[in-house]
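Office hours follow-up: a student asked to see two folded examples consecutively, so here they are.
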Amino acid sequence: MSNFLILVILIFASFHSTGGVMTCGDAMSVGEEARLALHQSAQKRAQDSIEEFMGKKIINPYSGHFVKERDATPSTMAYLIEVFWCETDKTPLHTAYYRYYSTNKSAFE
């Protein structure tokens, strides 16, 4: 098993067993591969929640007024979430994504 996979399993097991939430600080304190895995999980959780709340699907999960659609990637989105939407290192990572989607209606267009 790769070191990356072991690290991701340990991180998720730790959060699950303590009832904790992945925070922005958690994502920023690990290596790049684990960081992107944490962001992917948080993004999916936020997307599912906002789609249920809004009653419609997100069409552009990695775009908005900060990122041109052709330049949007999970990596650039992770950076933007950390810089603009993580108020503190204790902000739940999925909450930062949820706030992004709830204020950027272009994701639904």
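And the second, which I mentioned at the end of office hours:
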Amino acid sequence: MRQGGTLNREYVKWYSSRLSREMEMLVFGHAGAAVLVFPTSMGRFFQYEDFGMVEALRHHIEQGWLQLFCVDGVDGESWYNTGTAPRDRAIRHGHYEGYLVQEVLPFIQNINHSGFLTVTGNSFGAYHAVNFSLKHPWLVDRVIAISGSYGVPYLGGGYNDQEIYFNSPLDYLPNLTNEGYLRPLREKIMFYLMVGGWGDICHEGTLRMAAVLANQGIPHRLDVWDEAWHDWPWWRQMILKYI
């Protein structure tokens, strides 16, 4: 463990049986509500720190209000792996999801006893945050998704099947009727969708996601920052509003 001032920082690594490879993580803080942080597309576990998001949340972390768990991604092996078939990309993402549920969350629960989990991410990290929470609503309490786009078929070159469909919230959520998923989504989780104005490349996708949540009666707040664009300086400000 390394300390900078009173900000606890811990590097963690273990071999994931679900992914058949080593996975890394950074943990910031000593107490408070747990926050699972996804990187942006092709991003790494240290991205949140490198781009100033941890520093933006320093006061909250030092006060013991938050404990961040910044996970690594496997986008280069899944959705962005253009050398494999789209279905194989989706299957690899499924392995990643298994790693999160079966390995990361038990790790978090073992050291953080707050009983409250926020899931967040920027850009493609926002997609991960929303998709994960929609598929595992009983595990999540709050979602803060910033400047996200919430469909993945475009990464398959137009190809679509069940594996891809059930990882594309804009496709599967409008048709979801299973009360086992809908009830906790409607009663337990609050979704915060934040995005910039028309200059943000994810503006339209975020508005579509908010409309789908509304149609399904899922609590959410759409927060459009008209002057903002798709970049870290704005995301560092946005995260402070609802964290």
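Two things to take away from it. The first strand starts at residue 2 and ends at 4. Residues 2-242 form a domain with the Rossmann fold fold (CATH 3.40.50.1820).
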